[in-house]
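#onboarding

Welcome to the new folks! Below is a worked example of what a typical request in this channel looks like: someone posts a single protein sequence, and someone else replies with the predicted structure as tokens. Don't worry about understanding the tokens yet, we'll cover that in week two.

Example request:
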Amino acid sequence: MTKIALAQVAGGGERPAGMLAAAGRMAGEAAAAGASLICFPEQFVTGWSPEVPQGSGEPLDGPLTAAFGRIAQNSGIAVVGSIVETMPGRRPRNTVVVLGADGGVLATYAKIHLFSPEGEDRNYTAGDRIATFTVDGMTFGIAVCYDLRFPELFRIYALAGAECVLVPAAWPCRRLPHWEILLPARALENRYYVAGVNTAGGQDEVYCGGSLAADPDGTVVARGGNGTELLFVNVDPTAVHEARSGLPSLSDRRSDLYHRLLSKL
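Example response:
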């Protein structure tokens, strides 16, 4: 059993230094409660924008990643944060960085599905690979916000051995019913945990929290309110294995047939 913490905060609500100080306090609180990992919302330090926030970009080994590393070291738990990752000669990426309890990088994931309705795809470069990492023997995967609408990605994580997928997000209030349906659905269809941490507050009350975690049966095991709070979720690899053996939908897949059907489209 591994305890994880979902830090529901208002993205970009303060200057970066203030946001990082608040993150440090929440990481300390999570560690004191026995959590081994804390996950923050999408681009929580600057606030998510489909356009690149001015002055927010940095290389993967830049100051924001270093700050996450110090938070991890000081609290003694893994930290999942995100940055606007600049790349020479290319548009930046919306990148999640995972720092281990020693401050070292465990994994990075660049958002694969960019939110085209608001032009994120015109300002960012899409990622092209999944990322998994292990904390306390539990295998985690990473997806970001709009990725949640693409079941193919979550199935790939299941086939890659993920037992819990973390979904940092900036999911707006007006589409929160979709969030509440999709997170449990992704958990149930892949028979693993899915934990989504959403932004709370923001300008014009665009975001209203509702962070949510579902177990391998699709049952909601944690749900946030609409303000800043720290949610705790116990994730159990045994529950994943029991769910998959009890109803072996993953092993009953017809991947050979699916490829043939796609080729006929």
